[in-house]
Amino acid sequence: MPLTNSAAQPAPGRKVSTRPGSVCAETNVLVVDDDRSFRQLARSLLEPSGVRIAEAETGFNGLAYLKAHAQEVDAVIMDLILPDRDGISAIREVKSAFPGVKVIAVSGADSADLYLRVSAFLGADAVLPKSRIERLSSLLGEVLR
């Protein structure tokens, strides 16, 4: 699935926003979450800033997309509970194979705090409970600085 919002071109390097906490309009983000409404919400929060979004509903599909489009993806928003694998192992794989790609771990599970702390310890660049989704754009901007 190609990145949307404009024609995706391979990213020549990391895009840097000049405003702290803001997202550069040419940022390419992969949202990996089995909850379609969460993917749509993330899209609605990020696309107005010009962020290009690709979506995957399983960890397997997300990693396959990243492998095929590694030069285009700046950041991955990864749910920690996925139907085919746990997000923590997916994050570790992303950080190992694509160290330049930033990862924001998200979770809405009852034990989200524990999952998020573990994912931060194991390599996520940032963590965000789904209950704080309104912070997604500013957190993405901070991670990509």
Q: Would you mind describing this structure in some detail?
A:
The protein has 145 residues and is an alpha/beta fold. A 5-stranded parallel β-sheet has the order 2-1-3-4-5, with helices on both faces. It has one domain: 3-Layer(aba) Sandwich (Rossmann fold), CATH 3.40.50. Strand 4, helix 4 and strand 5 form a beta-alpha-beta unit. The chain starts with 27 loop residues before the first strand and ends with a helix. The N terminus is likely disordered. Helix 2 packs parallel to helix 3. The protein is globular, with a radius of gyration of 14 Å.
Blueprint (SSEs and pairs):
Elements: E1 28-32, H1 36-46, E2 52-56, H2 59-68, E3 75-79, H3 87-97, E4 102-107, H4 112-121, E5 126-129, H5 136-144
Parallel strand pairs: 1-2, 1-3, 3-4, 4-5
Helix pairs in contact: 2-3
Quickly list its features.
145 residues, alpha/beta, Rossmann fold, 35% helix, disordered N terminus
The tally of helices reads 5
Number of strands: 5
The SSE order reads EHEHEHEHEH
Shape: globular
Structural class: alpha/beta
